[in-house]
Amino acid sequence: MSELQEQPIFDSHFHIIEDGYPLESNNGYIPDKFTIENYCSRMGNYILTGGVIVSGSFQGFDQTYLIDALDKLGSSFAGVTQLPTTASDKEIYDLNQHGVRAVRFNLNRGGSAGPEDLVPMANRIYDLVGWHVELYLGPNSLHDLKDVIPSLPKVCIDHLGMSKSNFEPLLGLIRKGLAIKATGFGRVDINVENAIRKIHSVSPDTLMFGTDLPSTRAHRKYSDQDFFTIIDVLGQKESRKVFKENALNFYGV
Fold first, then answer.
1. How far apart are CA 137 and CA 213, in angstroms?
2. 26 DSSP assignment
3. What pLDDT does 227 receive?
4. Backbone torsion region of residue 163, taken as left when φ is above 0, otherwise alpha when ψ lies between -120 and 50, otherwise beta
5. What are the structural domain ranges in the chain?
6. Residue 217 CB partners (closer than 8 Å, separation 6+)
7. Taking the model in full, what pTM does it have?
8. CATH for 3-251, among 3.40.50.410, 3.40.50.920, 3.20.20.140, 3.40.430.10?
9. Binning pLDDT at 50, 70 and 90, where does residue 33 land?
């Protein structure tokens, strides 16, 4: 048995990019296709128990691709979408019925509602359907948001906070209801091993593993070594929470 098949995983962060659905040029970038079949083939050596499809900046406010992907992958998968402030209660309820569980604010690349909408949207959507917000931070984002995030009902931070400038404030924000994705190791400018060790030492319930496939615009794509890095840092026993349990608890899948 492959070592990859010794730890069941819930992939808390990946993208699906299918033909026939709207894409928006983001800073001149349009991604290559990455289908459900491509994803399942890449994950064929893992014990994949479920995961989270995340809307990218290049998908804007399109929901059609996400609904289709969630319907095909089934109830062990959840969605994270981007919404305009004009989204109606009915639209949000409908997305919830299809398995969407969070709204994303892309503060690094855009394509989402802006930071000025974060607090009212976070509270409105949490009150409606219990969704949390996911934040893709830009450099120094936490210096502007460190006093805002504690007021939000439930929050997830992508890619270990992305940058050195965000990391120390991030450690100070760890609390019940905050999750941090151990994802995007090929796109961050921090020491991944140290970040995993420090976050886990503050709260073993906070980190959630994800592949970030297909790693659009990352300096390097997801590697199986990223999976083994978590084991190398935390050991087999503690890694189980990061690979599966923390995300299942957070997303309620």
1. 18
2. B
3. 97
4. beta
5. 3-251
6. 29, 187
7. 0.94
8. 3.20.20.140
9. very high
